[in-house]
Specification:
With about 525 residues, the chain is an alpha+beta fold. It contains 15 helices and 33 strands. It has 3 domains: about 270 residues, 3-Layer(aba) Sandwich (Rossmann fold); about 100 residues, P-loop containing nucleotide triphosphate hydrolases (Rossmann fold); about 130 residues, Alpha-Beta Plaits. It binds guanosine-5'-diphosphate. The site of guanosine-5'-diphosphate has 16 residues, from helix 2. Keywords: Cytoplasm, GTP-binding, Nucleotide-binding, Protein biosynthesis.
Amino acid sequence: MLDTASNRPDLPAEIARRRTFAIISHPDAGKTTLTEKFLLYGGAIQMAGQVRAKGEARRTRSDFMQMEKDRGISVSASAMSFDFGTFRFNLVDTPGHSDFSEDTYRTLTAVDAAVMVIDGAKGVESQTQKLFEVCRLRDLPILTFCNKMDRESRDTFDIIDEIQENLAIDVTPASWPIGVGRGFIGCYDMLHDRLELMDRADRNKVAQSIEINGLDDPKLDEHVPANLVAQLREEVAMARELLPALDRQSVLEGHMTPIWFGSAINSFGVKELMTGIAEFGPEPQVQKATPREIAPEETRVTGFVFKVQANMDPRHRDRVAFVRLASGHFKRGMKLTHVRSKKPMTVTAPVLFLASDRELAEEAWAGDIIGIPNHGQLRIGDTLTEGEDLRVTGIPSFAPELLQQARAGDPMKAKHLEKALMQFAEEGAAKVFKPAFGSGFIVGVVGALQFEVLASRIEQEYGLPVRFENSQFTSARWVNGPKAAVDKFTEANKQHIARDNDGDVVYLTRMQWDIDRVERDYPDVTLTSTKEMM
Ligand code: GDP
């Protein structure tokens, strides 16, 4: 097994062994199955099938929505920690549906790498492409897993070409599939010269691994049928000639992705992928912040909130803030400073998301994700430090693309609705705008499905029926500029002005023309479609 300190011997060992990553994929490519197998190899559970069952049990308990189950989509991201050999993996789950792109984006700010899962028969699908673009914005290293090789799949060179062309990234094969569909017998491990043979009889069995001394080794002929072995030799020789060789630096910079072929459901290729994650990592990275960057090895603890989830337990109106530790060695009971409010905060009951269940975290290190239960003090984008005035940057809030007016089913309950909406706004599930003129609230989302999710959660978690109705507005922009200019602008455009749940001024627009007009008539005022959360 790989040495945990091999890449950064200067890091404290506990930090060097951490790998924090997310899986991105198009729905149905096999993300859930792969996650189960990760946990299986991570020794976190006995049988891979349990994750799904457990996931469902947890969902009912924490009242995750019925809708999530019905539609088979995962609405909220969660985190899981498990060990692989001497490594500690932190897997942060991303919601797969395109309507939750903002949540996904923020989740990706909390990881150091992404595993991209594609279906061997389908190649790069739309959602994969979108998520990939988000990773690229952050230059995240990407490791690719081409799944479902046990079924009819595309030609290996075609798959690689498609990724190179559609995603404009160099692809280097880490393994090479032998045979296709029913004739698929396993892979040649191009990084370690090993033959990995799949066991179709037992889906949870680790593949048989045979050490090979290069492609000419006669051992290859003993284990691979004659028709396939000739093809394998030819293809691997061609791949080595035509495709770029693996360059770790290039992988770390996000310019190259190694690809493994396998079948998650047959537990095949998963271990090799995990070894790849351990090997190429990367270890916890430097975090962008102002006025200075944060290095993971700094002894003082810093962390930032990238996700807030409310009502995980219906009996308590608690929220859990998901915090990525950016530096240091955190211990339970530590007193940290909540930088935005400058208030101290003693973290007495941090939660570590061990795959088996939520568990109290006695300690955690840079790279880890901990959950901090709180009553609303912690918001997305908040930074926690041991006193220093540091703010993590790069966690955006996007202007909504759809706006609707929220109305309480029972007019007497308008105040309750306001509270519920604010809570969801703080969770990042929607934007809530209070118009300067008129009553009620305007709710903004990125995708239409989010309105359904919201309505259903407000009803389930607060017992409030709510209607979303068309609003005359279609989008919103944050208003920036010198105070006098902003004041003058808001005074003259009251019908368009609202405040978001942080109290920041927004301009509600009906069409692009509105924005053009402001730019023309108010040169001192700038309208932005993203806001930095800090
Ligand atoms: P997700 O939507 O990306 O989380 O995908 P799932 O893990 O739920 O998988 C989607 C479907 O593909 C399920 O029916 C899985 O059983 C199936 N599946 C996953 N991995 C494989 C595989 O390696 N081979 C085959 N044949 N089916 C697979």
